[in-house]
Amino acid sequence: MEWLFVRQMIPVFVYGTLLEGFQNHDLYVKPYQHQAIPAKIKGEIYHLPQGYPGLLEGTDDVMGTILYFLPEEYEAALAGLDELETYFGPNDPRNEYDRIKVTAVLLHTNEEMTTYVYRYLDEEYVKSLGCRVHDGDWRSYMLAQEAE
After folding, report:
1. Calpha distance 79→1 (Å, rounded)
2. pLDDT tens-digit profile of 1-51?
C-alpha cells in the first residue's frame, strides 16, 4: 500500500517587498496565479538598513496581504519565497527568517485564519539597526520615505 502525503496548503501573509508594487512581488509572486486579500497580524515591524522589513513577535497590528496560490503552483511558489527569505527549514542555523504559522485577520470581514509568515530571527540586530514602523504598515512607511 502506498501512502500519499500532501502538505496542507496554508496561505502566506506578506508585509514587505512581496507586496504588490515592490520588486520582489514581480519576481516571486506575480509569476504564479494567486489571489491577494488585505489582512493584518500581530507583531512589530522594522525597516532594516538593507531596504526590507523585519518582523518580530509583538502585539501591534502589522498590515499586509494574504496570498493564496493555486494548488498546482503552491509548492513552487512557497519554495521561491523560502529562498528569498533565506529559510532552509525548521531550526536550520542558516535561516535569516523563520516561516511560522500565525493567525491573520481579513480586513474586510474580520475573519480569522491561519497563515504562514516569515519572522526575522535576529531580534537584537533588528532592534539595534532597524527603524521601527510604528503604524505597522511598511508600504505606507516606504511611500512616506519616497515623498521626502
Report:
1. 29
2. 444 444 578 999 999 999 999 999 999 999 999 999 999 999 999 999 999
Which grid coordinates are listed for 28?
516571486
User: At residue 25, what is the residue type?
Assistant: H
| 85 is known as an active-site residue | yes
Cα–Cα–Cα angle for 50, 74, 141, rounded to 5 degrees: 30
Q: What is the C-alpha to C-alpha distance for residues 20 and 16, in angstroms, rounded to an integer?
A: 9
Spatial neighbors of 17 by CB under 8 A, at least 6 apart, are: 23, 24, 25, 51, 52, 53
Catalytic residue among 75, 85, 111, 148: 85
Nearest to 65 by CA among 16, 134, 135, 31: 16
Helix or strand run (H / E) with residue 57: strand 53-69
